[in-house]
Write a structure and sequence with these properties.
The complex is a heterodimer of chains A (112) and B (107). Chain A has no helices and 11 strands. Chain A is globular, with a radius of gyration of 13 Å. The termini of chain A are far apart. Classes of the chains: A mainly beta (112), B mainly beta (107).
Amino acid sequence: KAGVTQTPRYLIKTRGQQVTLSCSPISGHRSVSWYQQTPGQGLQFLFEYFSETQRNKGNFPGRFSGRQFSNSRSEMNVSTLELGDSALYLCASSFGTSETQYFGPGTRLLVL
Amino acid sequence: KNEVEQSPQNLTAQEGEFITINCSYSVGISALHWLQQHPGGGIVSLFMLSSGKKKHGRLIATINIQEKHSSLHITASHPRDSAVYICAVLSNYQLIWGAGTKLIIKP
C-alpha cells in the first residue's frame, strides 16, 4: 500500500509570495495533520483535518491555512511568506484522530 | 512549563547498552505516541499507547496513566538506532509534542 506522499519535495520562494503544499494520505485514511519543523522550534503542530473539517489548529498566524478534499487529500497554504517560514513541512495521515499517524517525506520550503 | 517533557535531551551511549528515554506530561490524554526521526528527516511512528506496554523487536514502550509518564526502552542498542526520539500526546484531538531526545549510539 502506498505511503503518504507530499508534493513538491523542495520549494524555493521569495518573501511576500504565497505557496501551496499538497498531501495525499494513505488510502483509507481520513485524518490528515500538518506540522512545521525547524531546527530552533522543533516539530510544531499546524492543524488537523478529518472528513474535510478542521478538527484542531495550532498556534500559527492566519497566513497559514489548509483544507481537505472529499478524497482526503489535503493542501496547506501559506500566504505572504516570511523568511522564518523556511522549514520542513510534514504531513501525516491516520484512519482516525486517535490512531497512529504515518508521516510523509515532507516538503522543504526555503524562503529567500 | 511545557505540557510534554522529555528527558534526557541528549544521550550518547555505547553499542549494546540498554537505553531509556522518558516522557512526562501534564494534560489528560487519550493516547501517547513514540516516534523516531532519522537525520535525513524521515519520521517513523514507533508506538501508540493508551495503557500498559508494547514491544516491537528491541523496542519496548510503557505508559503509566496514573503517573502521567511513559518510557521508551531500547535493548542491545546499535549505531543504527541513532536518531531523535519524540514523544507526543493526543489531548483533545491535538497532538502535543515533546522536544525530542537525540540519541547517539557509538560502535
